[in-house]
UniProtKB/TrEMBL annotation:
One GO MF term attached to the UniProt entry: catalytic activity
SUPFAM superfamilies hit by this protein: Nucleotidylyl transferase
Region (Disordered), start-end ranges: 366-412
Pfam families linked to this entry: CTP_transf_like (PF01467)
Protein name as annotated: Cytidyltransferase-like domain-containing protein
Biased composition (Low complexity): 378-391
Domain of life of the source: Eukaryota
Signal peptide region: none
Residue ranges annotated for the Cytidyltransferase-like domain, each copy included: 63-149
């Protein structure tokens, strides 16, 4: 390798330089909705046939934050801010963007990644004719506004003979007025107030701006969903209260369906892991308790995993097995089957599920189906013949254990 050959800079260098790729990953900004709205607004102002203005102004909005998850409060905040900007600015609002923030260095277990939040934002704005999801992850709202402004200015510098000038507005909550330092270089800001106290807070903040230019670049809009918060939505999602979320209308249907699917998949994986862990524990206990008997039972093809309820009568064992079988027969999905198995603790399961899992119960019980030879057993010292009246067979070590019910279903 020659000394003059170019090498990529280290990650520490790329992290602190502006030309480096964004942590959110590559992505193309969707501007089809903005192009459609520009076509609608690119009409002459005068109706007498005179030429329209050579240059016009258009605004776009950016709602930046964690958006975990995106809900109706975020979308209605964009709508309210668009009305405020349209009434105050000198041009129409042609686009709005949901911009999820970049991932932190260490994500919590239940915190979705940037890619997942961006996908939910894309689902949330599917039915909107002017809101899109931003594909980049940035650490501040001002960076997102500057980059979107650059893309809009490069692509739509002239539409139908009209030169457009774009101005970006960032959306923030009323609480941000206490900590957000506004400077001359800061993007225009729309504060969303949830109640009258928030409105008064923002107005006092605007009145306290020393520079008149900054005061003119700050607006206040009232929220249409003052009661919805991301924390409350996350609580309902964590509690699997899908009906309440649907009733309140806090989530878009596509977002709600996606979150429900993710929750069911995560629960299914958790139950599978728990079943595997319990099965492994049963194998260890069985191998350590009576390895020879387990080996003899597995060699005999007439043996199968069954239900073992030591200390119960045969009638109780049959009743528990039938109840578990009826419960599992009504389960329409694998998730509910695993939930029933985990809740039962492998104590009462149907023969079909027992055969599928291959590990149900603390011991292996020989089958008592008609015509089949019984499993290996030895009489105890006190009796030379096995007792059949109570349905109990003596084991190799002289311990009594219940037989499998004669009416149990054979494995499928």
């Amino acid at each position: 390798m020659h000394l003059w050959e170019w090498r990529p800079p280290p990650s520490s260098f790329r992290r602190w330089h502006r030309w480096a790729p964004a942590p959110g990953g590559p992505g193309q900004l969707q501007l089809d909705k903005a192009a459609q709205r520009l076509q609608e607004f690119a009409v002459p102002d005068e109706l007498d046939g005179t030429a329209p203005r050579a240059r016009r102004r258009a605004a776009f909005l950016v709602l930046w934050g964690s958006l975990n998850p995106v809900h109706a409060g975020h979308l209605t905040a964009l709508e309210a801010a668009a009305e405020a900007v349209s009434a105050k600015a000198k041009g129409p609002v042609v686009a709005g963007f949901l911009a999820p923030s970049v991932d932190e260095e260490e994500l919590e277990n239940d915190q979705p990644s940037f890619a997942q939040r961006r996908h939910l934002c894309a689902l949330a704005c599917t039915d909107s004719d002017w809101i899109e999801a931003c594909p980049w992850g940035r650490s501040s709202s001002s960076k997102v506004v500057r980059k979107i402004h650059k893309h809009l200015q490069e692509r739509f510098s002239r539409v139908n003979g009209i030169a457009w000038e774009f101005e970006g507005w960032q959306i923030a909550s009323a609480d941000a007025a206490l900590v957000l330092p506004l400077k001359r270089s800061s993007p225009r800001t729309v504060f969303v107030a949830h109640d009258e106290s928030d409105r008064c807070l923002v107005r006092s903040y605007i009145a306290g701006c020393e520079q008149e230019k900054i005061a003119r670049s700050v607006l206040v809009a009232m929220s249409r969903y003052p009661g919805v918060t991301s924390a409350e939505v996350r609580r309902l999602v964590s509690a699997r209260e899908w009906d309440r979320l649907t009733e309140r209308g806090w989530l878009a249907p596509a977002v709600l369906e996606r979150l429900q699917t993710q929750a069911e998949s995560a629960e299914l994986e958790r139950l599978r892991a728990k079943v595997e862990a319990q099965a492994a524990a049963l194998v260890c206990r069985r191998a350590g308790a009576d390895a020879a008997e387990a080996e003899a039972g597995l060699r005999d093809s007439t043996w199968r995993p069954g239900v073992a309820l030591t200390g119960r009568a045969e009638a109780d064992a049959v009743q528990a097995d039938e109840a578990a079988a009826a419960t599992l027969d009504d389960c329409p999905s694998e998730l509910e089957v695993l939930q029933a198995v985990v809740e039962a603790g492998f104590s009462a399961c149907s023969a079909t599920v027992a055969w599928d899992l291959q590990l149900v119960g603390d011991v292996l019980v020989p089958s008592t189906a008609p015509g089949g030879p019984p499993g290996p057993s030895q009489p105890s010292a006190s009796s030379a013949q096995p007792s059949t009246a109570s349905g109990v067979q003596p084991s190799r070590a002289g311990r009594e254990r219940p037989c499998s019910p004669a009416g149990a279903r054979p494995p499928a």
